[in-house]
Design a protein that fits this description.
By secondary structure, the chain is an alpha+beta fold. The protein is about 25% helix and about 30% strand. The strands form six sheets. An eight-stranded antiparallel β-barrel has the order 14-15-16-17-18-19-20-21. An eight-stranded antiparallel barrel has the order 22-23-24-25-26-27-28-29. Strands 2-1-13-12-11-10 form a six-stranded antiparallel sheet, sandwiched between helices.
Length: about 550
């Protein structure tokens, strides 16, 4: 009996650790299921079963906690999206291009300080020093080919790398290199050309042999060149009648700025390699994730192929992508071991992949974003918060009563509707931003706190809201004398046109914008915080606290 008891005790001693381990594993599995359920609950409402959808992956501490598909892969053929499908990445391509450049730099084949003419000797830099680093950080001043007037009319044409470079190389610089940050697809196109020149391989071959194959990314490729085995989702764009096929695009044009296709599984493999420090030395990865500083010392929010932002107060490194038929977003929160990739097969909604990715990441790191529901308020509650609030010197945020609601307009930005969650809390629909108004001892509103990505910023109230601009009726003949093209700086033109009784302006590389007369010589937009006035034959654009004159061409 004693022997049997001893044996049982020994057996318990031996078995207990395994039982405890099994219990811990079971708890861990239940925890992961719970986390997946909470992430799904946060993002699923953004997708409809019969509309273009998305593939989503969320990885935490090296484990996939959610891998799911939403909506349709092809609405015209009623094919549902599946998690293994491949989609265009758009500008997520840029992080692969930057990594290739850094690999070549570590091999001594180039330096980030190289003037680009060292590798592209025929490129006209107009006496300026434009370096490879300027291309990586969108600070070169080179005109972006996707912003050029008429770009979309020729985007189906197959062009060689040299022909594409010829299409923008003679354009004037937009600014002095390193003096500004302005997102630029031309810069990353040129990086692709430099990769080919330095490596002796095509851009597609270099990435396939040096990055994709070694990392097991077998379904990531340059579109049109030896695709992987994963099924491919169809791209969609929105029209007045709903979603239809994406507009055609020759993938010779996005090239190293946006021509890759991938799956969320391959992107998770990619992030695992980046997190493990593969392919590059630690110092190179550190530089890639560090915001570039302009010549005046001010930091940008961009490194080399990655943007630096925050998710609920935690540093996040990521990028968005937008290309015909597709919108994408991928981010990593290194301090929390979280990676999220969202690939959607529509270039115009119904969901913003950046918003979806951030909501998923917020849940994954244990800091979910607040959810708001609109509340009914009386007129006095709206009147109480209306006013002008100072963001920084020369930049204001104006809250105005608009009918039965409230609008907000930041200096130089479009006016947007703001919804009430309570008498002190308001939110911007379709975003993760919200505002909280503070009152003084007398009960009057004295400030508003802007909440964005977990970083609250207080804007003090400095006065009442200025009266809303109101349109008047003028004779069409009066406006017709103003019709024409006005050059505000070399390569940047405002064109004024009329369609019936409606007046329009269109800036170089931008869409058409309706303007309304305040007088026969002053016009405003209800979408952008800007005015156009005329002094004789000179147009003056008033925007962001600056007056920019333009001569008629």
């Amino acid at each position: 009996m004693l022997l049997r008891s001893a044996i049982c005790a020994a057996a318990l001693l031996l078995c207990h650790p395994y039982a405890a381990f099994a219990q811990d594993a079971a708890k861990s599995a239940l925890g992961e299921q719970d986390l997946a359920g909470r992430i799904d609950a946060a993002i699923a409402p953004y997708f409809k079963a019969d509309a273009p959808g998305a593939t989503v992956i969320v990885v935490k501490d090296g484990k996939t906690v959610l891998r799911r598909a939403y909506g349709m892969a092809d609405t015209s053929r009623a094919i549902r999206m599946t998690p293994d499908m491949a989609l265009r990445l758009g500008s997520l391509t840029k992080q692969f291009t930057s990594t290739a450049i850094l690999m070549l730099g570590e091999e001594g084949k180039l330096s980030l300080d190289d003037d680009i003419t060292k590798h592209l000797p025929d490129y006209p830099t107009r006496g300026k020093t434009i370096t490879i680093e300027h291309l990586l950080t969108h600070t070169s001043g080179i005109a972006s080919f996707t912003s050029k007037p008429g770009y979309t009319t020729g985007m189906t044409q197959d062009l060689t790398v040299a022909q594409m470079i010829d299409s923008f190389k003679n354009d004037p610089l937009d600014f002095e290199p390193s003096s500004q940050y302005r997102y630029n697809n031309s810069g990353y196109f040129l990086l692709g050309a430099i990769i080919e020149k330095v490596s002796g391989q095509s851009y597609a071959s270099f990435l396939a042999q040096r990055i994709f194959k070694p990392l097991g990314m077998l379904d990531t490729y340059y579109e049109g060149i030896k695709p992987g085995k994963a099924p491919v989702a169809a791209g969609h764009t929105r029209s007045a009648s709903g979603f239809g096929p994406a507009k055609p695009l020759s993938m010779t044009q996005p090239y190293a700025a946006g021509a890759l296709v991938s799956t969320v599984d391959d992107l998770a493999r990619w992030d695992a390699a980046v997190s493990a420090g593969k392919l590059l030395k630690p110092a190179s990865w550190q530089r890639a994730f560090t915001p570039y500083r302009l010549s005046d010392g001010k930091p940008t929010t961009y490194g080399y192929g990655w943007g630096i932002s925050q998710v609920q107060g935690e540093t996040a490194i990521g990028h968005s992508g937008g290309i015909n038929g597709f919108s994408t977003y991928a981010l990593r929160v290194p301090g929390k071991g979280v990676y999220v990739a969202v690939l959607t097969n529509s270039d115009a909604g119904p969901a913003s992949p950046g918003l979806v990715a951030r909501k998923a990441a917020g849940v994954a790191i244990g800091k979910p974003y607040r959810e708001f529901r609109e509340a009914k308020l009386d007129e006095a509650a709206f009147d109480a918060v209306a006013g002008t609030y100072e963001v920084e010197k020369g930049v204001q945020r104006v809250f105005r009563r608009t009918g039965e609601g409230l609008s907000m307009q930041r200096t130089g930005m479009p006016q947007v509707a703001v919804k009430a969650a309570s008498s002190t809390e308001f939110f911007l629909p379709g975003t993760l931003e919200w505002f909280e108004f503070q009152r003084g001892a007398d009960g009057k509103v004295v400030a508003v706190t802007h909440h964005q990505d977990g970083t609250p910023v207080v804007n003090p109230r400095i006065g009442d809201a200025p009266p809303a601009r109101r349109a008047i009726k003028i004779a069409n003949a009066s406006f017709d004398s103003r019709i024409g093209r006005y050059e505000l700086r070399p390569g940047f033109v405002l064109e004024l046109t009329r369609e019936g009784d409606r007046y329009f302006t269109q800036a170089t590389g931008q869409g058409k914008l309706e303007i309304f007369p305040m007088s026969e010589t002053t016009f405003f937009s209800d979408r952008v915080d800007a005015e156009i006035s005329f002094e004789g034959q000179t147009l003056v654009l008033k925007q962001g606290g600056r007056d920019t004159p333009g001569r008629k061409l």
